[in-house]
Amino acid sequence: MQHPNPERAALAGATPARAQTARERARDQITAEIVAAARIRLAESGPGELSLRAVARDVGMVSSAVYRYFASRDELLTALLVLAYDDLGSAAERADAAVADRADVIGRWLAALRAIRGWALAHPGDYALLYGSPVPGYAAPQATIEPAVRVIVVILSIVTEAHALGRIATPTAPAGPVTAAAEMASVAGAVAFVRARGLVGDEVPTELVIRTLMAWTTVFGTVSFELFGHLVGSVTDLDVYFDVVASRLAADLGFSALR
Amino acid sequence: MQHPNPERAALAGATPARAQTARERARDQITAEIVAAARIRLAESGPGELSLRAVARDVGMVSSAVYRYFASRDELLTALLVLAYDDLGSAAERADAAVADRADVIGRWLAALRAIRGWALAHPGDYALLYGSPVPGYAAPQATIEPAVRVIVVILSIVTEAHALGRIATPTAPAGPVTAAAEMASVAGAVAFVRARGLVGDEVPTELVIRTLMAWTTVFGTVSFELFGHLVGSVTDLDVYFDVVASRLAADLGFSALR
DNA sequence: TGTACATCAGTGAACGCGCGTTCACTGATGTAC
DNA sequence: TGTACATCAGTGAACGCGCGTTCACTGATGTAC
After folding, report:
1. pTM for this structure?
2. A171 with A201, same domain?
3. A12, part of any domain
């Protein structure tokens, strides 16, 4: 059981479950309107150029009125960041949860990955805010970390459960086969996935964690390349290409099919 | 044998090899100074916020004087784009060329990939310009395509040569093992790598081309994640992590070691 | 239930700023004879 | 080699613009008695 409406909760801050006055309801609603207008602006302006005055105009109020809701432009950006991360995270969660057969880990994998890309295509402005170049003068506050982690948690938990179910073909051979120089030997232990492993559980082999991080990177690299125009000349059918990539990633992780 | 100084040539346009007058030399030099100042600005401002006036100030001239060299802000951006792509491309080319044993394809692979990351870390502003969010109102002109392709050409040619040398362990099994649904069957032929294959040669198997594109995406995904701050909590030693990724990619491509 | 006061949303004017670009100009550098 | 004219780099003022943020204000909504 999750929060019935995480977006609203995130926007309104720590609003208790108690009854709201009409004024409070109006405030929440207009706050949401401002953020919604800002999201639309984001789709064609880029976060650095996001104009508080333009957003105010879109909502139909005078620019100074926005300061009743957000203390500064940066605070509005933070709200957008939190909202977008939560939106993406819950899209991935829902896609995973929608797969009825929980043991069908490949199905869940593909569903989650497609949901990520689908969300990005539907919200290119938000995607660029989250995964594009950082906004020059802006440093994301602590509050954005938790929602930011939601997507990768979905990915990691699918892998973890697949491992627990024995649906991953052995921990996937480590360096071994390839390794050109002695340098490869120093590699295996040197990577300290402190936080990542905190999210995974110690029973998952290191090599599998590495592979999961790589897959995560490839997914977002692929989506970024698509959205930022780097695949224009090379790939014609981007839908199919994404599925091709997703399947190869599943293979590299050692996922084994149901039957 | 390459152009002795591609950067300068790109900046000055189609300057013939004929002797330059003092005025021409001065013009080229100041053009380069402007671009250099703009690159420095880029490192901390982001392309969308790049200010022509600020650049002029840095160079020590009045803002209108810049218009003797670039007709508009967009034209300056284009010059930056071309310069950066060429810079990155030649860094990768040099790294590959520096590996004495041309049959050591894994060594060349690692060298090229490390050069890409090294360049990105040394020029984060340029990297964000090339691979970060697109600049809102700006559309890159045709002239940027050719230099943009240089990096991927390096990667593709290493793979192609490895294939020709028999240093790639069979064309790497296609879908086969994993494939959950029938959808995987429709995949193999559907991807039309028109341009990519034009760059590769028909003897390279499709699966290998797919894998190369994936590797390319993963490399830039990893670098973007590092530079844009998405690996902060998860990975501690980024140098080692990158090598780990590069080696896994070589393995997935089917590179076989020298001995 | 009714009044008096406090809270709060939204207004409109104003601030100081930096921006891209244009234009008429000055003076130095190059070219033609 | 020397002069007359054309080319070009750089100046400084000006344009119109949109921006983030502040502030004193009005009027509506809520709260306490």
Report:
1. 0.89
2. yes
3. no
Number of domains in chain A: 2
- Domain hosting B125: range is 86-253
Interface mutation target, options B131, B133, B256, chain A, most CBs of A under 10 Å: B133
Average pLDDT for B199-228? 89
Q: Region B128-152: what's the mean pLDDT?
A: 92
The CATH number covering residue A210 comes to 1.10.357.10
Same domain, A146 and A189: yes
pLDDT of the residue at B24: 85
Tracing tokens 């340098």 back to the chain, one arrives at A183
Q: Do A214 and B211 touch (CB under 8 A)?
A: no
CB contact under 8 A, A178 and B251: yes
Q: Are residues B63 and B93 in the same domain?
A: no
Mean of per-residue pLDDT scores for chain B: 83
Task: Give the residue, A210 or B228, on which the prediction is more confident.
Answer: B228
Examine the domain organization and report whether A46 and A136 are in the same domain: no
Kind plus residue range of the DSSP H or E element containing B161: helix B145-164
B156 or A194, which is more confident = B156
Enter the tokens of residue B43. Answer: 């490192």
* CA of A101 vs chain B CAs: smallest distance (Å): 13
Is residue B126 over pLDDT 90?
yes
Answer whether any strand D atom is within 7 A of the Cβ of A74.
yes
Residues with pLDDT less than 50, chain A = 1-17, 171, 173-190, 192, 194, 259
Measured in angstroms, the CA of B112 and the nearest CA of chain A are apart by 15
Looking at the fold, whether A104 and A226 belong to one and the same domain comes out as yes
Please state, for a pLDDT cut of 90, what percent of chain B lies above it: 57
> Which pLDDT belongs to residue B225?
97
B 46-105, residues with C-beta < 7 Å of strand D: 61-65, 68-69
pLDDT the model gives residue B154: 95
**Which of A61-75, B76-90, B161-175, B221-235 has the weakest average pLDDT?**
B161-175
Query: Does one domain contain both B56 and B162?
Result: no
Residue B173: how many other CB atoms lie within 10 Å? 12
Residues B178, A257 contacting (CB under 8 angstroms): yes
Q: Do B252 and A252 touch (CB under 8 A)?
A: yes
- The token pair that represents A119 in the structure block: 């969300």
CATH number of the domain bearing residue B64: 1.10.10
Nearest-angstrom CA–CA distance, A139 and B160: 43
Residues 99-138 of B with CB under 7 A from strand D: none
- Output the CA torsion A158→A159→A164→A167 (10° steps): 100
Q: How far apart are CA A230 and CA B88, in angstroms?
A: 15
Running DSSP on this structure, what letter comes out for residue B19? P
The pLDDT of residue B17 is above 60: no
The candidate with the shortest Cα–Cα distance to B251, out of B191, B120, B243, B179, is B243
Q: In this structure, are B111 and B60 located in the same domain?
A: no
Residue B22 tokens, joined: 């003092």
Same domain flag for B106 and B218:
yes
B132 to A132: CB separation less than 8 angstroms, yes or no: yes
A35: in domain = yes
Is A5 inside any structural domain? no
Question: Could you tell me if residue B79 is inside a domain?
Answer: no
